[in-house]
Write a structure and sequence with these properties.
Layout: E1 3-14, E2 18-30, E3 35-43, E4 48-56, E5 62-71, E6 74-84, E7 87-94, E8 100-105, H1 118-132, E9 137-145, E10 159-175, E11 178-188, E12 195-200, E13 205-211, E14 216-223
Antiparallel strand pairs: 1-2, 1-14, 2-3, 3-4, 4-5, 5-6, 6-7, 7-8, 9-10, 10-11, 11-12, 12-13, 13-14
Length: about 220
């Protein structure tokens, strides 16, 4: 077999509330270094289900993606993305709206993609490490994201953003899935608290994430 498979589950835990949701994912890693992520993201109190498929190349740059969003049992939107060296093409629909086909120019090939899957978030650091060189902080530009809401509960659409990330060093993190030697990163905002990510290994697996804005911790609890 010329590919390998990684299965996992990430729990979403809110302060003073407890388990708020989870993300079940499967990653296939192929002989050419490309990877595909299939993630089902559920937020129980918001009755939100987001299905994500994302394929990236050996540098974690996006190749294609599909996102389907349901909230409170109702269809919100669905969209397919294809990435070119200088653009992203989008074909999709939101509830009550006609089908949209759009071709959005980018300053360069998109270094990463934001689907609001937290495992997808961890893959952004594969691109970040490639771009930053010896710098501990770097701004990645021309990143398509599906939604600018903190919980990603609208769209999907194409919003082009720039993301400022920071590398803080290495540390060991223990979760229900085991003990991991992680790299610690931050996603830095001007208007919100930073998001902390602890990421493991060459597959850039999300082990732990903390965002004080939502008072939430995300932890890897199953891995095989």
């Amino acid at each position: 077999m010329n590919y390998r498979v990684i299965d996992g589950r990430i729990d979403y835990v809110t302060d003073d509330v407890g388990l708020r949701g989870s993300e079940v994912f499967r990653i296939s890693v192929h002989a050419d270094g490309s990877r595909s992520l299939r993630a089902c993201c559920e937020m129980h109190d918001e009755v939100l289900i987001r299905d994500v498929f994302l394929s990236v190349d050996a540098n974690f740059a996006p190749l294609n993606a599909h996102v389907h969003l349901m909230v409170e049992g109702r269809f919100v939107g669905t969209g397919h993305y294809l990435f070119a060296p200088d653009a992203v093409s989008f074909h999709g629909r939101q509830r009550g709206q006609p089908i949209v086909s759009d071709h959005v120019a980018l300053p360069d090939a998109a270094p990463s993609f934001g689907s609001h899957s937290v495992q997808n978030d961890a893959w952004a650091y594969g691109a970040f490490d490639r771009c930053r060189g010896d710098s501990e902080e770097f701004v990645m530009r021309g990143i398509p994201v599906t939604s600018t809401l903190p919980n990603g509960a609208d769209g999907p659409a194409v919003v082009v953003a720039e993301h400022r990330h920071r590398f803080l060093g290495e540390t060991t993190v223990t979760t229900a899935a085991g003990r991991f030697d992680c790299r610690h990163y931050q996603f830095v905002f001007d208007e919100w608290p930073a998001i902390d990510y602890w990421v493991y290994g060459p597959d850039y697996l999300l082990v732990k994430c903390r965002w004080d804005l939502l008072r939430q911790t995300y932890e890897l609890v199953e891995l095989s």
